[in-house]
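Worked Example 4.2. Consider the chain below.
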Amino acid sequence: MHAERVYDRGLKCLRVLLSALLAVSATPLFANSLGDHRMSFNIPVQAMDTALVAFAGQAHVQLVVATNALKGLPASGVAGDYDPPTALTILLRDTGLEFQFTGPETVTVRPKSSTK
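Applying the procedure from the previous section yields the following C-alpha cells:
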C-alpha cells in the first residue's frame, strides 16, 4: 500500500514536470510570432532594396524577394513602434508589392498579382 502511494506521487510529480517543460518549450514559439509583438522601426525614405534590408535587420527576419521587382521603387519609410506586418505594410504602401510571411521568420515580397 505504501509503495503504491509513493508510485502514484511519483507519477503525479512526473506529469507536473512534463507539463511544465512542455509549457516552457512552447513559449518561444508563440513569443517569437512576428505579428504578436511590437518593436521599434527606424527606416527612412530610401530605395526599396535598402529599405527592405533595413526592415529585415530590424525585424530579425529573412526576406525572399526578386531584386528586379525592386528596381527604381522608392520606400516610404517607417518610424515608430509597430508589429512587423504593420511596419512592412507601411513600407510597401503604393509600391505595387505585397508580402506574405512564409515561415516563422521568413517573409516573401513580390509584385501584387493582377487577379486581386
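Strands lie at 39-43, 46-47, 62-65, 74-75, 78-82, 97-103, 106-111. Residues 13-32 have pLDDT under 50 and may be disordered. Compare this with Example 4.1 before moving on.
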